[in-house]
Specification:
- By secondary structure, the chain is an alpha/beta fold.
- Helix content is 42%, strand content 12%.
- Strands 1-2-3-4-5-6-7-8 form an eight-stranded parallel β-sheet.
- Helix 5 links the parallel strand 4 and strand 5.
- Helix 3 runs parallel beside helix 4.
- It is globular and about 55 Å long.
- The protein starts with a strand and ends with a helix.
Amino acid sequence: MIVDIYAHHISPSVGKMMEKAKYYGEGKEFPYPLENADPEARFAVMDKYGIDVQAICQTTPVLLGLSDEDATEVCRLSNQDNYAMCKAYPDRFVNVCIFHLCDMKGTMEEFERCINELDCRGVTISSSQKGRGLDDPEFFPFYEKVVEHDLPVLIHGTHWECSPLMDMENGNRFMHVFGWDYDGTQALWTLIFGGVLDRFPTMKIVTHHLGNYFPFFVRRIEQNFNKFLSDRLPRHISEYYGNIYGDTAVDGTPGAFPCGYAFFGAERMLYGSDYPFGAESGEDFVRSNLEGVKAMYIPDPEKEMILGGNAQKMFKIG
């Protein structure tokens, strides 16, 4: 079985809300194929490449530029529209629900709805919450519920435009190419050093883009920890790696797959595409990321784990 754990879904109702947002929609920086909301269009791509199941989720930068109230509404609409597709085709889709932690009241209410009514199999959150780190104690009740229900946390990078050299308008798309992964790396760093993974030791964190900067800089991370930071944590930093997983949505970059594998091993890598973004209405990313996994010089049983076995366990798929 092949499971795509990072397949986005922007429904018509969410698309309507995007008229208030800054980046997503027709004529904006992140257009998306409207046919992504058509199950038959998704099936055509899935069947062409042998994808059995998509874990459908929202991309968190859709919340940029929205008020907390509107951001929570986008989450609500995304979650219920995802579920409608999952309910109609339970053998092909599972629901990963999005939450805006800046509105904790709305988040906790929506979480209960997602658990009780929407067959939630995982949660998606932004790597930072309007400048607040993921170690903010106000977010702990959410993490408690996530761990209680054994749900993976998918962290999606977002904007943190701290310098004109890095902003979207003047920085030649630096933020989109590098900044989201910088913020995703910051999120991991914050969860570790902020004590979140010590407080919730069974939490499963799924990093987008195969671990952000962690796999490439793992020795740099450990050298700095050993020299400067060893008194900041109760355990060696390497002991937290077991909480961290990585999807394969790296736009098909060949060298990223063995680098991610060296860090995660087969047990903590999961196939993800980033559909429907990318060329060919998302088909390019589905194909190239699949090819990247299959091209690795690793045993076939390990490829099977990455392509679907790990996801079946994590998302409780049949």
